[in-house]
Design goal:
The structure holds 2 protein chains of 2 kinds. By secondary structure, chain A is α/β, with parallel strands linked by helices. Helices cover 37% and strands 20% of the residues of chain A. Chain B has an 8-stranded mixed beta sheet with strand order 2-1-3-4-8-7-10-9, with helices on both faces. The longest helix of chain B is centred in the N-terminal third of the chain and has 18 residues.
């Protein structure tokens, strides 16, 4: 088995902890390694304690390990928080200027005092991590200089002096570290967070307008797309509220723009009415719902899967919708693209349900190897007079956009939040109500067929206990499958439910793993497939699993 | 001249101020299309309430949106296709209550839309509750002892929020209102037109408006004067209170 090297970088918020970890990941990637980064941070801007876990291996890594080979502590709190996580033979580097709890096994470096000496305005000591890691892994000084220049744009000369000073100190101290990197080897794929991949998947399928109001852990989609304005011709609009965002997205779709909205549970609670509106108006509304622990404001910066039933039941009234959850980084990209296509083909709201864990963890992904959906065929228009809600065999009415090429001057295109006639004019007549409700349900049937174009369930492993999970919990399980065999079944599409692919599992016993205080996913599987849970593994402290910790829990359940 | 009829039965109360607004909007749109704006480039949105029924009486493309959200919907349309002329209709419950945030933010952004506010001083379609624009003392179903909240002054509120075209018309002064709507749509930036609209069932203000409405000769020279004129209770001034050139949101975003 290939060794996975693990590193913790810890310090105060605002010190650049995440950045330091990212640079380590970038260096390992450039040397042809696979990496996985997991950031643990709090809802504060300066102070507190943040840490990042970086894993490095010759094989793809799906989840973190909390027992590590290297710890780099920028302050005393980090020493106290992480000292127990060091593996035998591991190295713990501490900032001797803030290390009251240090012991003789730790390696002291004068980070703060050296910084004071070398900088006219001392900045963040976290840059030291780059020097330490470069020295340990055999990166040359010239390569280190290139890395610092590329990664840290301000104060370059001071940064170089500081990083090289730390590097020289570590070289002189002659630490033993087995991982040696060939920096020039060339990266596998590109380094992306789950949220970036969600954004890129939508962009690949024509996203031009993204409407959002910041809410962790979905905010980084907004930030990422805002940076892509020039390169991708996409407009990221920070609306006055989630209500505004969702209604703007429906308006933009009416005018022919491929749009999306994104938030966490609280923001989606505010978008409920607009979601229902999208169901009624038959608006292609793509939604990114990245969960954190609730209810209400909950815990902003940690992970949870408490929003399964919320996503499935989003919006009042009965109407077709799609809910699907990516089980990997690659799927975050492809599923976002698929849902964009399905939302438009079936003129329905679609939710990509994910969690902080996938949204904000990062890994190297080869985007070029991922197949994207083909554009669907627009239904042709048969009637002489355009009717927005024309009743058709498939339940899908032709779409036209005002002022666009496919529209003639006489076309009147009316979208309506009321129940309506085929023309889009409001009605409350019983026969007309039934006709339009049946049309939408008929479209829902077509939608079920439409989802079958795509992989709706992922199966991993061929022996061992049967385990069900969804979303990023599948990543946690896949990493432990390197050490313990499982038959892991992961429904990607949750609504419409992929009955065909899962028929064989009806009534079977399985272990169900989820990040929720109550076994909602297990209950969902019982309702849909009659799955009998022989053990619910629930985690609801907001944290992701350490790979071996989860392995132990499954082993205990298996042996019981 | 197009009549824009949809064949939908009109269900406003006989004598409702909305009839005057509907007829005026039709004339204004005819005049705008005669002036060279292609009809297919004109799009409407509305919220929910008596005002919203105008959507069904105008055979023009658009979105019959959610209560309070017509302007957010309109902004989405405009952002997706800035060539479109978007006219948004709102009630006083709609644009000044449930959806006030969108009204203020559209003005703040100076996005090139026109909001026509049907101000009938109460919630008509829900059978007469006090609205954010109801006078103190207004007796409605939710305020049987009389409204205790001070109303907003929409003209002043929108000037402060950043609307670059702010005007007030009266549903019974149709020719004047028609000119306001034409100018509002032609104005590049956010145009706000408050339309005083008597509600014959719950807030019949015909006599008040007929006695006190007076048309402004010119646009006031500064906002301070405009604010004083807009708040004058002796005379209810109609006309353009503010018209200025300010950079428009879509232009800035897409620059």
């Amino acid at each position: 088995m290939e060794k996975v090297y693990n590193i913790i970088v810890g310090g105060k918020a605002g010190e650049g902890v995440k950045k330091a970890a990212q640079v380590i990941a970038h260096i390992a990637m450039a040397a042809g390694k696979y990496v996985f980064q997991n950031d643990d941070y709090q809802s504060l801007i300066k102070g507190g304690h943040n840490f990042s876990l970086v894993s490095i291996s010759d094989n793809p890594i799906y989840n973190s390990y909390f027992k590590v080979d290297i710890i780099i502590s920028f302050d005393d709190r980090s020493i106290r928080t992480h000292r127990d996580k060091l593996l035998p033979g591991g190295l713990h580097f501490v900032n001797q200027d803030d290390a009251a709890s240090k012991d003789e096994h730790m390696i002291s470096l004068p980070l703060s005092s050296l910084m004071k000496k070398l900088y006219s305005n001392p900045a963040n000591v976290s840059l030291a991590a780059t020097g330490i890691f470069a020295a340990l892994t055999g990166i040359s000084q010239a390569e280190l200089e290139a890395i610092v220049r590329k990664e840290y744009r301000n104060n370059t000369e001071e940064n170089l002096r500081f990083a090289i000073a730390i590097y020289d100190l570590c070289i002189t101290q002659k630490h033993e570290f087995a991982l040696k990197l060939n920096y020039a080897k060339g990266a596998i794929g590109t380094f992306h967070s789950g949220n970036q991949l969600i954004a890129l998947g939508a962009l690949a399928q024509g996203l031009t307008h993204y409407f959002s109001y910041p809410m962790t852990p979905a905010s980084s989609i907004l930030h990422y797309l805002a940076l892509k304005k020039e390169s991708h011709k996409v407009y990221a609009v920070h609306a006055e509220s989630e209500l505004a965002a969702a209604n703007m997205a429906i308006g933009a779709a009416f005018a022919g723009a491929r749009t999306a909205v994104g938030s966490s549970g609280g923001g989606f609670a505010l978008m409920q009415e607009a979601f229902s509106f999208a169901g009624m108006a038959e608006a292609p509304l793509l939604c990114f719902l990245s969960s954190r622990p609730g209810p209400a404001t909950g815990v902003s910066t940690y992970t949870a899967q408490e929003d399964l039933f919320f996503a499935l039941n989003q919006g009042h009234g009965i109407f077709p919708r799609i809910v699907a959850s990516p089980d990997s980084f690659e799927r975050a990209y492809s599923l976002s693209a698929e849902l964009m296509e399905l939302a438009w083909e079936y003129q329905s709201p679609a939710i990509l349900l994910t969690e902080k864990h996938l949204s904000e963890c990062s890994a190297n992904i080869d985007l070029t190897s991922i197949a994207l959906p083909k554009p669907f065929e627009q239904p042709s228009e048969s009637e002489a007079v355009y009717k927005r809600y024309a009743i058709t065999e498939s339940g899908i009415s032709p779409l036209k956009f005002p002022g666009k090429g496919n529209c003639s001057p006489d076309d009147v295109i009316k979208w309506c939040s009321h129940e309506h006639l085929e023309t889009g004019v409001r009605t409350d007549e019983p026969d007309a109500m039934i006709a339009m409700k049946d049309k939408r349900l008929c479209k829902g049937q077509s939608l079920i067929e439409g989802t079958k174009k795509y992989q709706r369930v992922a199966f991993y492993g061929t022996e061992g206990p049967l385990v069900f999970a969804y979303g990023s919990t599948a990543l946690e399980l896949r990493e432990l499958m390197k050490y313990y065999p499982l038959r892991l079944v992961v429904p990607i599409y949750l609504e419409p439910f992929p009955y065909d692919e899962l028929a064989w599992y009806r009534g079977q016993e399985a272990i169900v793993v989820e990040h929720a205080a109550q076994p909602h996913f297990a209950e969902f599987l019982r309702q849909k497939l009659g799955i009998i849970s022989r053990g619910n593994i629930l985690r609801y402290d907001g944290r992701s699993w350490d790979t071996f910790e989860l392995l132990n829990v499954i082993e205990e359940l298996q042996d019981a | 001249m197009r009549n824009f009829n949809t064949g939908k039965e009109n269900t406003w109360c006989p004598g409702c101020g909305n009839f005057g607004i509907l007829a005026t909007v039709k004339k204004a749109i005819n005049s705008l299309t005669d002036g060279g704006i292609p009809l297919e480039d004109i799009v409407i949105t509305c919220g929910i309430g008596c005002h919203g029924k105008i959507f069904d009486y105008l055979n023009i493309s658009g979105i019959y949106g959610l209560h309070g959200r017509a302007l957010a919907t309109a902004e989405g349309i405009k952002l997706a296709n800035p060539r479109l002329k978007v006219i948004s209709f709102g009630g006083d419950g709609d644009s000044m209550g449930e959806g006030l945030e969108h009204t203020l933010f559209a003005a703040k952004r100076n996005i090139d839309l026109t909001l026509i506010l049907h101000n009938n001083g109460n919630y008509g379609l829900t059978t007469g509750q006090a609205s954010p624009l109801s006078k103190i003392g207004f007796k409605g179903l939710s305020t049987p002892q009389g409204n205790i909240e001070r109303p907003f002054h929409p003209v002043n509120l929108l000037m402060e929020a950043g609307a670059s075209f702010v005007a007030r018309g009266y549903s019974a002064k149709m020719e004047h209102l028609q000119q306001l709507i034409i100018k509002g749509v032609q104005h590049k930036g956010f145009s706000f037109i408050e339309v005083l609209q008597p509600c014959v069932s719950y807030n019949n203000t015909y006599e008040l408006y007929n006695a006190h409405c007076q048309i402004l000769d010119t646009i006031p020279p500064d906002e301070e004067t405009a604010r004083a004129l807009a708040k004058d209770e002796e005379h209810i001034y109609l006309g353009i209170f503010k018209q200025e050139e300010r950079k428009e949101y879509c232009d800035l975003l897409m620059a």
